[in-house]
Every structure is written in structure tokens, then in C-alpha cells.
Specification:
Elements lengths: L7 H4 L7 H12 L5 E2 L11 H10 L15 H15 L9 E4 L2 H12 L5 E6 L5 H8 L2 E6 L15 H6 E6 L12 H14 L2 E5 L21 H4 E6 H4 L8 E5 L1 H14 L5 H13 L1 H24 L12 E5 L6 H12 L1 E2 L1 E2 L10 E5 L4 H12 L5
Parallel strand pairs: 1-10, 3-4, 3-5, 5-6, 6-7
Antiparallel strand pairs: 2-8, 7-8, 9-12, 11-12
Helix pairs in contact: 3-12, 4-12, 5-6, 5-11, 13-15
């Protein structure tokens, strides 16, 4: 059997940090242990019935059995524009400012391929979503990490960044509510970001994957709610989290027309758009999903509150949980992130994600996924408490 050599671009791809954690977890489950998996980012609840029923109805339409328009059906783009007007008061031109994506992960990889050349600099949050690096690596670009620290409410400090990095950067990734820190951003921060982007000619990509999940008095802030946002960047929104549609792989980008055009251009060469019935179901979710989103947010708020109360009861304090379905928890003294995660997995059969898997600045923390029932979150804390590490 001939073994063919991979292209240089594939060789540049980063290793999946969490692959070993997944393997260890599966081994324990196969051995018959009761494992509470709080290390994942995969929604555990089903897609609402009204969306599934919309898919079932649409699947019988013969027009959807043919190739869809390369850049998606206009009815979905119009529904996206209506959704942003209703939710955020943002006016969007569905013809020039919306691109339909095959899940936001795909868009986050594609945008680096659209805008970066080999050697270009990219500003990346640290800790941050690991797959930002996938597109950066494929493009042969260079990541410049922006530390997210507790004393700054996990927001980048542009004042402390090297002037040369800002001058040379072509792209910046942001993500609020944040994975993994569960922090949210303010309008003032996004206003500052736009000023920095304009001054240095940087395209901003705001990953708004958890945009519908926030626990403050007001809903999480959209980047596009700040004046001038569409001049300097785009926001990517997925239906995976808002409507428990992770397996459906449907998302969209909104914003700067030149960036939208680039995303649609690269997708013209990769795909022939999403199955039309999925696009119709996505329209149904956006048009009529307000109640479902609100109920899901209440569910995650209940889980967040349950976990934090149970954690405090065992002496585990200091977590951040303003938005997303994660809690960012400090590890006890004497432990690193990986060592503590291994201890919980091996001794308590509780899976958490070590913070350093999201970047060097994530050391000293673990990420907890609120993706199980409240009683299981309580039980997880009780098992951790039995280890007497706090």
C-alpha cells in the first residue's frame, strides 16, 4: 500500500488537544463507570419540535430535491435580516451583508483562507476556541495571542499590545459570550475595538456562537450594535446553540459586504449550499423561535445557578459564568489545569476541560459544560468535594 505525503498545509494543522481526553473518557465508559461528562461543548437537549416538523414538511417539496442556489435561498437571508432587526435593532441588507455558512466553525476556518496570506499576522484570544488556529494554519499565517485575564474581565487590553503587532495584523478574532471563560463583552469594549480596527485596518471577526445565552440583566451584546461595526468586520452566528441544532450545521455571517462576498466566493468552490429543507427549517427557527430561545436560556441559568451553589458548598469558588453554557473555574492550589482535570476524571469520574487546552493563559482554570441535568451537576460537585482538594 502506497502512503502518499500530505500537503504542507495539512502538516501545519494543530493537533487536537482534547483528543486524548476524549479517549480516556471513552475508556472509562467502556469499563462500565458512571462518567459525568462536563468537558464537552455539544448541546444535550433536542431540537424543538416545531423546527423538526418544519424540516419534515419542507423535505417533501420537490424544489428542494435539486441543487440549491450556490449562495443559499433568499428566504433564509431575509429571515436572518429580520431576526437581527428584531433581536438587536441592526439593519442588514440580505443581498450583500449575509452569507449562509455550513456551521460557524466552517466560516471561522474559511475567513482566514479568504483574507490571509502566508506570514500575515492574526490577533487571537488566549484562551480561545482552538479551531481559530485551523484556518490560520491552513493559510500559513502567524497568530499573535491576546491574553484574556480575570482582572480585565477576560477582555483583551489593546493598550498593552505591541504597536507592531497592531500595525501588521490583518484579522482579529473575538468571541463573546466567551468560550471558554464564559465572560461577556460591553458595548464600550466593542466601540473601542472598532476604533482600533479602523486605525490599523484590521478585519474583526466576532464569533457570536453563544449570543442567545446570557445571565445578566440584558441579553448579550452584538458586535454589530456598535456604530461602524460593519465597516470593519463581520459577526458569525450559529443556530447550534440558540436552538439546539448542532447536528444541522447551519449558521451565517453578517457584516462587511467585501468579507461576505469573499466567504460566498470560497463557498462557491466548496459547496452547492445547504439542503433547501434545512434552510426552510432554519427560517422557521429564526421567525418563530423567540419562546424556545428564552426557555433554553432559563434552562441554562438554572443549571448555572445549581452548579455554582453546589461548587460553593464544597469550597470551590471564583468561577465566571456570565454567558454561554460554560463555567470557567479556577483549579485548587497545588494543581495545574491538566493535573486537576486528570484527577477529576480518574478519581471522581467527572470530565472537565483543562484550561491550558485553550491557550497558555488558560492555565490555572478548567471549563465546565452545563450540559447535563441539575441533579447530575450537583452530583459532580459532590464527587469533587469527596476528593478534599479545597
Amino acid at each position: 500500500m502506497i502512503e502518499f505525503e500530505y500537503a504542507a498545509a495539512l502538516k501545519r494543522l494543530p493537533e487536537q488537544f482534547f483528543a486524548q481526553l476524549v479517549k480516556k473518557t471513552q475508556n472509562l465508559i467502556q469499563q462500565g463507570h458512571d462518567v459525568i461528562n462536563l468537558g464537552q461543548g455539544n448541546p444535550d437537549l433536542p431540537t424543538p419540535d416545531f423546527i423538526v416538523e418544519a424540516l419534515q414538511r419542507a423535505a417533501t417539496h420537490r424544489k428542494f430535491h435539486k441543487y440549491a442556489p450556490f449562495q443559499g435561498f433568499p428566504f433564509l437571508k431575509e429571515a436572518i435580516a429580520d431576526f437581527y432587526q428584531r433581536e438587536y435593532g441592526v439593519e442588514v441588507d440580505p443581498k450583500t451583508e449575509v452569507a449562509i455558512l455550513f456551521g460557524s466553525k466552517t466560516g471561522l476556518v474559511e475567513i482566514s483562507q479568504c483574507l490571509l496570506n502566508a506570514g500575515d499576522k492574526v490577533l487571537v484570544p488566549d484562551p480561545g476556541y482552538p479551531d481559530y488556529m485551523s484556518g490560520i494554519s491552513l493559510a500559513g499565517a502567524e497568530a499573535v495571542y491576546m491574553p484574556l485575564k480575570a482582572e480585565r474581565q477576560f477582555l483583551p487590553n489593546y493598550q498593552q499590545m505591541a504597536a507592531t503587532d497592531l500595525e501588521q495584523a490583518k484579522l482579529m478574532f473575538l468571541n463573546y459570550p466567551n468560550n471558554p471563560t464564559a465572560a461577556t463583552a460591553t458595548k464600550a469594549f466593542f466601540d473601542e475595538t472598532i476604533e482600533v480596527a479602523k486605525r490599523h485596518h484590521i478585519c474583526v471577526v466576532h464569533d457570536f456562537a453563544y449570543g442567545s445565552i446570557g445571565f445578566e440583566d440584558s441579553k448579550p451584546q452584538s458586535f454589530l450594535q456598535s456604530e461602524g461595526a460593519k465597516e470593519v468586520g463581520v459577526e458569525m452566528y450559529t443556530l447550534s446553540k440558540s436552538f439546539n441544532m448542532a447536528g444541522w450545521r447551519v449558521a451565517f455571517a453578517i457584516g462587511n459586504p467585501s468579507v461576505i462576498k469573499a466567504l460566498e466566493l470560497i463557498q462557491d468552490h466548496y459547496y452547492v449550499s445547504l439542503f433547501g429543507a434545512i434552510q426552510m427549517a432554519a427560517k422557521e427557527a429564526l421567525d418563530h423561535g423567540q419562546t424556545a430561545m428564552e426557555q433554553l436560556n432559563r434552562t441554562y441559568r438554572e443549571r448555572r445557578d445549581t452548579f455554582l451553589q453546589a461548587a460553593e458548598a464544597i469550597g470551590w469558588k471564583g468561577g465566571t459564568a456570565q454567558g454561554s453554557f460554560f463555567v470557567w473555574m479556577p483549579v485548587p492550589k497545588g494543581y495545574g489545569s491538566e493535573a486537576f482535570a486528570d484527577l477529576l476524571l480518574e478519581e471522581a469520574h467527572v470530565v472537565v476541560a483543562p484550561g491550558n487546552g485553550f491557550g497558555e493563559t488558560g492555565e490555572g482554570f478548567v471549563r465546565i459544560g452545563l450540559l447535563d441535568e441539575p441533579h447530575r451537576l450537583q452530583e459532580a460537585c459532590q464527587r469533587v468535594g469527596a476528593l478534599s482538594v479545597f
